[in-house]
Amino acid sequence: MCVYAHAEAGLFAALYGSGYTFGQLLHKANLQPDFKQFTNAETPDAVINNFTRLQPTFTKLEIQVSIKNAKQIIRREKGVASRLLYSIKAELDNLESELRGTSVEPTSALLQTRTSKAELHGYNESIRRIFNNNIRMSASNPTLLRESMHLMRFTEHGAKVRADEDIALAEDYARKVEERHQRHQEQL
User: DSSP class of residue 35?
Assistant: First the structure.
């Protein structure tokens, strides 16, 4: 399976922040059967819905997504979504290599039969319930979640401005050192 993603870091994090694009990717790989119940929106309820629907698929793929990771993706912290995407790609490649030489396509039903540490239905169900409860508790105040999602853009912009200022200061310092060096050479 080919995975295409936008290279621009800010756009990449925003694209995957709601969980919808992860669901879309897994649906195209025939691994997310309930994709029709995903919501392509940035509201806290939509984001929580998407991530609680993704969690069972991640568990079946043996990809560890903690509450902390989910919150980091929702807040669009750089690098977290790309690491998860890499884990998904690695597991899909693994699954394809397991099926190489057969005419079987990867599907969610195949994941059910795949042996894993989390094989018991009760275990999977309790993990799903715990994840669902934890993500809802962490997003119990939708206003705070929206605010943190909104402020992330300004935080990223501030970091970029600070980096640009640091570069300008470094260039200015290097220019002054070079001028001093030239004056010193002229005096000799």
Answer: G
